Amino acid sequence: xxxxxxxxxxxxxxxxxxxxxxxxxxxxxxxxxxxxxxxxxxxxxxxxxxxxxxxxxxxxxxxxxxxxxxxxxxxxxxxxxxxxxxxxxxxxxxxxxxxxxxxxxxxxxxxxxxxxxxxxxxxxxxxxxxxxxxxxxxxxxxxxxxxxxxxxxxxxxxxxxxxxxxxxxxxxxxxxxxxxxxxxxxxxxxxxxxxxxxxxxxxxxxxxxxxxxxxxxxxxxxxxxxxxxxxxxxxxxxxxxxxxxxxxxxxxxxxxxxxxxxxxxxxxxxxxxxxxxxxxxxxxxxxxxxxxxxxxxxxxxxxxxxxxxxxxxxxxxxxxxxxxxxxxxxxxxxxxxxxxxxxxxxxxxxxxxxxxxxxxxxxxxxxxxxxxxxxxxxxxxxxxxxxxxxxxxxxxxxxxxxxxxxxxxxxxxxxxxxxxxxxxxxxxxxxxxxxxxxxxxxxxxxxxxxxxxxxxxxxxxxxxxx
Length: 466
Fold this sequence. Notes:
Layout: E1 9-13, H1 24-32, E2 37-43, H2 50-54, H3 61-78, E3 82-89, H4 93-110, E4 114-120, H5 125-133, E5 137-139, H6 148-152, E6 156-159, H7 164-171, E7 176-179, H8 184-194, H9 199-209, E8 224-228, E9 232-237, H10 246-251, E10 262-265, E11 268-271, E12 276-279, E13 285-288, E14 291-294, E15 298-317, H11 320-324, H12 326-343, E16 352-359, E17 379-387, H13 390-406, E18 426-435, E19 439-442, E20 451-457, E21 464-465
Parallel strand pairs: 1-2, 2-3, 3-7, 4-7
Antiparallel strand pairs: 1-8, 4-20, 5-19, 6-15, 8-9, 9-13, 10-11, 11-14, 12-13, 15-17, 15-18, 15-19, 16-17, 20-21
Helix pairs in contact: 3-4, 7-8, 8-9, 12-13
């Protein structure tokens, strides 16, 4: 595949997450603009540590397949590369394999011949321990120094790739790149940076478009097309009835970014403090003035591990006397339950955890306005039990059940009745995971923590390793 640089590099970003959908009319209009690459992110940590810890996807297979089919057919029509980052939500090896299976299924159904690069970035505990021993791992605030014990407590650990492994696969002839955990922007910046366009413009464009249509005025009408050139870039919605404005485009630098003028990526520091955003017309915005600085190469590490099992009970409280003194009632409830779990069931304090979340409790409480508090008409109390096993968590939740249904404000009060919205009242939530890593690892070779495998997909199911 030629990587000679034309005057403009066009990258089509259909959505902010594979599986969230792009209207067909918008997508077809994007294809008519002749993109040089299709790029989309398929992962996130937004929904918590469960998906990384369990190694499963947040998105449904059917929605993922729908979007991937659209992209694979569009890619085939134009003969350009397709890059999917953070496969399977968390970018584990199993997530890449899951996406590869969907890709192979679509290729068989559509009669496509494609060369697919599978890039894995999951890290073994032994390998990461070597980097730790070499002093190459640094915590990000507020994380503590990494230890061997913390590494061992993780079920899955991934390293966030930069653009280099993606670009290497495209140089080797990949039609489709299915990558493990990748920074959102690296997926989009890979082709323009590989083709020699200014890295400042490429990375800035990638940041603006990482969430697809979120940088437009109508965020549900599909993604955007990027036009990157020697002096800057332009961004235009795919949908003909959508638009970008200097406000919607510049505002996206605030998204998931503590500093709206600086973006840090593996080996990259982007400075946009001097950037200018100008409307080209009613739909398109041009951006110039971004600056780029090469930095020591580090990859962020994400790790998640199980810490017991949870069972939930949810009760609805409409007793006005209880709601008027909710804080005192809740403290009495906690004391009663903890005493019973220890005295009746025999669990020590370290054997379990009880959490109470009162939904609607402060819904009518204006912030900083004393004397204006109102009593809500109803509060939903979520009780979360965590224990070492699912059976223990459910046992404790069942013990809590009658108290959650009838606990009075005062011992002499008539016994109140609250309500459970479903029966049985106990809902088993399965294994409970928590994030355990917020660190970076310094490396000399951007490809060192990745490995690439190849698939040749053929019509009729004659697939195999390349």
